[in-house]
Amino acid sequence: MADYPDANNPWRGRCRIPFERLDRERAAAERTLAKIVSQPAVSAKGDDLGPVAERLARLMRDCGLESAVLPTGGAPIVFGKRKESDRLPTILVYGHYDVQPVEPLSAWSSDPFTPVIRDGRMYGRGTADNKGQHLAQLLAMKAVLEAYGRLPVNVVMIVEGEEEIGSPNLERWVAEHAHLLRADFAYTSDGAVHPSGRPVVLCGSRGLLYLELTLRVASADRHSGNFGGVSRNAALELARVIGSLWGDDGEIAVPGFCDAVAEPADEERAAVAALPLTWPIPASEMLPRVDSPSDWFGRVLLRPNLNVSGLGSGWTGPSMKTVIPATATAKLDVRLVPDQDPHDVARLITEWVRAQAPDVEVDVISAVKPSRTPLDSPVVERVSQAVEFAWEHPPLVYPSLAGTVPDFVFTSTLALPSVIVPYGNADQANHAPDENMLLDFFHKGARTFVSVLHAFAP
Amino acid sequence: MADYPDANNPWRGRCRIPFERLDRERAAAERTLAKIVSQPAVSAKGDDLGPVAERLARLMRDCGLESAVLPTGGAPIVFGKRKESDRLPTILVYGHYDVQPVEPLSAWSSDPFTPVIRDGRMYGRGTADNKGQHLAQLLAMKAVLEAYGRLPVNVVMIVEGEEEIGSPNLERWVAEHAHLLRADFAYTSDGAVHPSGRPVVLCGSRGLLYLELTLRVASADRHSGNFGGVSRNAALELARVIGSLWGDDGEIAVPGFCDAVAEPADEERAAVAALPLTWPIPASEMLPRVDSPSDWFGRVLLRPNLNVSGLGSGWTGPSMKTVIPATATAKLDVRLVPDQDPHDVARLITEWVRAQAPDVEVDVISAVKPSRTPLDSPVVERVSQAVEFAWEHPPLVYPSLAGTVPDFVFTSTLALPSVIVPYGNADQANHAPDENMLLDFFHKGARTFVSVLHAFAP
Fold this sequence. Notes:
2 copies of one chain form a homodimer. Chain A contains 13 helices and 19 strands. By secondary structure, chain A is of the alpha+beta class.
């Protein structure tokens, strides 16, 4: 303990011993990751995630935190805490243990819940999103505690089980448990580093509105010979509604959709323009209106979007069935930027949809607000230094995550600065078949959090 | 045998004894119907229908026919035959033992393959479409044979197992087995009588073209946060293609779709105009452009139609999944009238679809030609007289069935006159949940075929 913490020494030097421990324990860390990936926790299926949460709480304790499984009304939150001293700053760490559905199963090269390592990557649902990322924080704390017996700062950690269904209980739970969550800033690892492998620091998240559209036009499916072309067809009517959401130019046609979008700050535009980008997927799969990788990134970081993520009606099985579908459903997801409010946007979309087809019912499945921490916040600077030390490259600083994490509960509900430091590889295939995490990045993630812990020591 | 057949006596008198036998055997007939309905034969599922065919062949033998199960390459054809004399005319009887899929199962009031009788109807998949109808012919022959020891005409019967998937093997099989099928006319019972309960005689069938549209725009589903609005979305693109198939006026927008449609004959228009019709479903479920029941019937008997019977893409399960679907599929069914050729229409639709979205693949799942027998054919007149005798009402004579039976194999391949005499009730819910057959009509069906057999005795 002699050399810890020593304000006269640069914090970077304190990382050496934990880094060495992490290097020695790589195989054990990968076994732990495989173990938690093999515990399915698909929140969209409505399974009981309590047992998975209990196992995670035990893992937290193994890593040196006090831990408890706390109810939310939905899947429980795994709460962790290590308080070293009132005089030390506190980092609030967020992660999620739930995962996306695995369908279509046939598109996976190996079973999604039987993790396998191929070419330096671990494949399995949840490897990168988000188990490998919050496990990295836990292993970092374990290594620091084994090296020094204490952490350089206080830590509070919450790992929720409903992120992939839009965190329906998180905002209320955080508001009700604010006394447990006092901290200086929030720290989340989710998403991916730059495709080149350079680390990134993100200062916000797009919001998410998820809508389900349902249309019923008849009491039952009918025979297409007797009634085709003379009675209403739900598949056709809803297809036309879906088509109406975008103009022929591919832009969102819902009136007012962009009205609340705040003009991005100059430094946000500059940050995006400075990103060294290449096409992350075959250019042929991009829409023609996206004229460069930089344009792609500006669109997904600074602008909102409306996506249709599912469509179902009538007979979709093998061969044929000659019916007129009585019902049709569609799923829409909307990514929001400041200052769009999900409920306002839900109302605009509902009004537009009803103007096309008055019988369509629109249900809000999830509503997560966007969030933003100013790029010039001191927390952003300090975290960026710590990331640079761990990755041996300065991070790219993004104004926002293209995807959605419920960061607004920190920036809005708790009024904290919040940064997101992803450890996933850009081709992690999260939300898709063959999700994987590059193991090198998993281990770098643990180094990163060791470095962050030390960077905020007084 | 003394009083049979006697050309000096009117044929109607010869029906009395078989009618009485049918009346006495109603309970047994209903038990037989329940038994065959309880044998699932969903051709769309690709099950082995051989065992069901074998049981039907045994039933044919019980009813006095020679019978054999003959291979087709797909589900076998149950062939039946009773040859009384070279000097007698021969009726070629057609039916199908396969049934539609039952989904959505939850919409059924009782199990589709556990037939139950409620309010004078038997409920179950296949009751009316088509088991109750071809069973009526068999029970009619059994009653005549029990009464007189022979039939007044020769009968050849084929009951196929692929009608609900568009009879993919029937045309070739019929051409190859024309020597077994020599007859004076073809007789089919399928579909429904008039909603008022009046019998009908149909002189043709609309054709059916069934297409599957498949669109793949990416190698895998992608995360809607990272790629939404910048990469291609199969659900959206296919929804727009589906929407493009119809104009805003609801009319089919595919160029040339109606070019080959022959102008209906005056007597065909007159026959439709003379039909006493009421709305068969709530008027609110009809499209506004259909201004009267007569307009409805003219459209479904004399005009072609294009229907979307299924649409599927992305996540349609519970809750949410934020993906950009890589693939989308749609099922289209097209009803054709003379002189439309299904393959020509498939080409027109494919060209139009490809003009909207060049990547869409279009597969022909089924192609059944339309058929028509002239309303003034002597066969139509004689059958109509026989139907009138059995139902105690003159039939309504329709130029065509609104739905599709593969009648063209008789009118085109074998160049025979062909009539369709449905025994089903108008609210039979065929192709839909709670399919049922009014038992009174099932029994009237058996009387009808007794009467038809006698009407063609020399």
